[in-house]
Design goal:
Elements: H1 2-24, E1 34-36, E2 52-54, E3 57-59, E4 69-77, E5 98-100, E6 109-114, E7 120-127, E8 135-140, H2 141-147, E9 155-167, E10 173-176, E11 183-193, H3 196-210, E12 213-220, E13 223-235, H4 236-248, E14 255-258
Parallel strand pairs: 4-8, 5-7
Antiparallel strand pairs: 1-2, 2-3, 4-9, 5-8, 6-7, 6-9, 9-10, 11-13, 11-14, 12-13
């Protein structure tokens, strides 16, 4: 009896995990295969801030919207998604001024200009998408109607990120950059060994070359591993660039880790 209860609980936990991942991305209801990519560097981030894959293609949410400008096709989505959860956990309202974008920080307000007619509106990004080639933003029905996109279905637009909207006591609206996780202390793990001497030899090589390399111990499935962390980088973008450089040097399984 106890074993049966334990099995049921495990099944329920598994179902909960699946539902949680589906809530991170609006593609779960549209035939997309979605997966959030977990790394030590993003362990403290919310689900919608982490890299994710859609049908095998990876997307990396931006740490900051500062200076972001993009041109391309806008589309819109409405009744089929009305009342369903968006990527940040809100309930999608097709009559609200919102939109979906693949990588901008959720909560960012964006100025959208229809390049066919010059109409412009400000929308708030609260969802992920559109996952269709050449389309850069999925507008709510209301936003698409005001911009003149509903009839044709798509339109060429220019989008400019403004930041997170803030309204003062007098009703004046200003914008600030969302909290960024770009800055911090990061390293790159380039190898993991079961023999400590192998790890220390590799760390010594890059300590001489880069001035920073350490060996970290960790248990994985009952086995003790010695992980080699190299470098110290002050931003995620610098760490990702270093990871790519290590990949070209033959360390194809490298990934970014957060330092204490």
């Amino acid at each position: 009896m106890i074993d049966g209860i334990a099995m049921v609980l495990r099944i329920l936990r598994w179902i909960g995990m699946v539902l949680l991942l589906c809530g991170v991305l609006n593609g779960c209801g549209g035939g997309y295969r979605t997966r959030v990519v977990e790394t030590p560097a993003t362990a403290g981030l919310k689900g919608h801030q982490k890299p994710y894959t859609i049908n095998g293609r990876m997307y990396r949410p931006l740490a900051s919207c500062d200076g972001f400008v993009e041109e391309g096709l806008a589309s819109w989505y409405g009744p089929n998604f009305h009342g369903k959860k968006t990527s940040n956990g809100e309930i999608y309202d097709m009559h609200a001024m919102t939109a979906a974008h693949k990588t901008l920080p959720l909560g960012t307000s964006v100025r959208v200009v229809n390049q066919n007619n010059g109409h412009q509106e400000i929308v708030r990004i609260n969802d992920r998408g559109p996952f269709v080639d050449n389309r850069i933003i999925d507008l709510s029905y209301e936003a698409a109607k005001r911009l003149g996109v509903v009839g044709p279905g798509t339109a060429p637009v220019r989008i400019e990120a403004l930041g997170v909207a803030r309204t003062d006591a007098l009703g004046n609206v200003s914008y600030r950059s969302p909290v960024s996780y770009e800055t911090g202390n990061y390293a790159v793990q380039i190898g993991a060994f079961t023999v400590s001497e192998n790890a220390r030899r590799l760390a010594g090589k890059y300590r001489r070359e880069l001035g920073q390399a350490t060996v970290k111990q960790g248990w994985i499935n009952g086995r003790l591993f010695y992980r080699v962390w190299v470098g110290r980088y002050g931003s995620l973008s610098a760490a990702y660039a270093a990871r790519d450089a290590f990949g070209r040097r033959g360390y194809g399984n490298s990934f970014v880790v957060a330092l204490d």
